[in-house]
Amino acid sequence: MHINEIQDQIVEEFEIFDDWMDKYNYLIDLSRSLPVIDDKYKTPEYLIEGCQSRVWLRADMENGKVVYKADSDAVITKGIISLLIRVMSDRHPEEIINNDLYFIDKIGLKENLSPTRSNGLVSMIKQMKLYAIAYQAKAKKDN
Amino acid sequence: MNFDINKIRKDFPILGQKVNKKPFVYFDNAATTQKPFKVIERMNKVYRETNSNIHRGVHYLSNITTRDFENARESIRSFINAKHDHEIIFTPGTTSGINLVACSFGEKYVSEGDEILISALEHHANIVPWQMLCKRKGAKLRVIPMNDDGELILDEYEKLLSSRTRIVAITHVANSIGTVNPVKEIIKSAHRLAVPVLVDGAQAVQHGRVDVQELGADFYVFSGHKMYGPTGIGALYGREDILEEIPPYQTGGEMVDRVTFEKTTFNRLPFKFEAGTPNYTGAIGMAAAVEYLKETGLEEISAHEKDLLEYGTRRLSEFKELIMFGRAKEKISVLSFVLEGIHPYDAGMVIDKYGIAVRTGTHCAQPVMDRFDISGTIRASLAFYNTREEIDRLCEAIEKVIQMFKQ
């Protein structure tokens, strides 16, 4: 499925919620389905430090695609991460690097991503793209 | 004086609004306080009617602004009962005041092998400047420990004090958990060894009467914006004799006496420490805040806030999932807690949706969090314009948080 089709799918899922409470409850549910990073990787090396909540992120290259695993100590953050992974994980590096993440804005969670919230998510998106760039460069070199 | 809460709330235009469709509740007063009309209008008047740089012009408006600025200094002096006007230095805020002392006092009096004493309750602003000074000079930073209730262990303090101690820098009230330190006793012990003491009063002056002479403080620093005044302005009180002895901090205009390319002599106190154009509008606004506090009555403010803290502590203790940090016998205006198994950030997000502003995280006091082995707390910090009803609203929000996140 194209990366934007998944984004549209998520936007549609969120359309049924009238208020923030339902959205947050859904994010709490999603947080439980996150492909969680193994505890042994919860080290400073994989930590994306936010002032308020912490996020760990790891990326592996599997069959030419970047696969992300992540975790956070805050549940809402974790729920949003699971959406990011649904959109970005298991894709070719080019798709990840060139995509525009419009779904966050459309589902009304942009406030959660503003840099002033300093919850590690902005840095996480940046880090996800950096991993993709690094794997792309590595693939080119190997070829 | 009459303490009429409804009238007081009307003095603060920001309080009347709705946030997230709910009446706004502001419980982040330890971060910054809201401003009464009196302060806003006073500053407005400077910009509309009298703005001119101070101490320089001979012209009409410059004279008026200079007079208002120096009157502001006198207001601040009287507010903390300093002996002389020139013992009040205007700074950009508490952090700047501490940096000034760490640099100027440190330059003159701290050398290799010396020790600087701080406490386990300090805000980063009263840790890092001393850490940097120690690094520059090869001195050592020692820390007065606290007990599980968040009170300093004074016996340990006495043991740490020695002939190597050059200065004690201590907070009057802990921003993270609200402990009121026995600064008078702390100063007395230090003075027995002729060690000067800097008191960080950022969380103290807005809650009750402070008398620097009675305390015996050598330096006392605080910020305008945490006492209902503007941001970007604060005051450093320093005892005249010490301020005379230590070198200037920043240099430039206004603080000089005579400049040639070979040599510069410095202006007298307080101007020696006020390089460049000071924030005179801020100083005048800060003095308006002092006036407002005096009119409202510091005793009445203390009494109302004490009632709120007791009520809040009692109401919050009804939640069995809630763990309160900071249970000092002497405590003011801060309710700092965690909800078992729930990240403070998650809680804060939901509380915000109820139109309630609290702070979550480490409150710029990571060593305090480390001491309790937690990643952060939810902090509701109270001011005299808050009410019991607002605390009830916070409790409703907490109930919802527990319901949503408890697994």
Features:
heterodimer, A: 143 residues, alpha+beta, Sufe protein. Chain: A, 3-stranded antiparallel beta sheet, 3 strands, 13% strand, globular, B: 407 residues, alpha/beta, Aspartate Aminotransferase, domain 1, Aspartate Aminotransferase, domain 2, 2 domains, 4-stranded antiparallel beta sheet, 14 helices, 17% strand
Give the topology.
The complex is a heterodimer of chains A (143) and B (407).
Chain A: H1 3-15, H2 20-31, E1 47-48, E2 55-62, E3 65-72, H3 75-88, H4 93-98, H5 103-106, H6 110-113, H7 121-142
Chain B: H1 5-10, E1 18-19, E2 22-23, E3 25-26, H2 37-50, H3 60-80, E4 88-91, H4 94-109, E5 115-119, H5 128-137, E6 140-144, H6 154-160, E7 165-171, H7 183-192, E8 197-200, H8 212-215, E9 219-223, E10 234-238, H9 240-245, E11 256-259, E12 264-266, H10 280-296, H11 298-316, E13 322-325, E14 334-339, H12 344-353, E15 356-357, E16 359-361, H13 366-372, E17 377-381, H14 388-405
Parallel strand pairs in B: 3-15, 5-6, 5-7, 7-8, 8-9
Antiparallel strand pairs in B: 1-2, 4-10, 9-10, 11-12, 13-14, 14-17, 16-17
Helix pairs in contact in B: 2-10, 3-10, 4-5, 11-14, 12-14
Write a short abstract of this structure:
Chain A has 7 helices and 3 strands. Chain A is an alpha+beta fold and 143 residues long. In chain A, α1 packs antiparallel against α3 (75-88) and α2 (20-31) packs across α3.
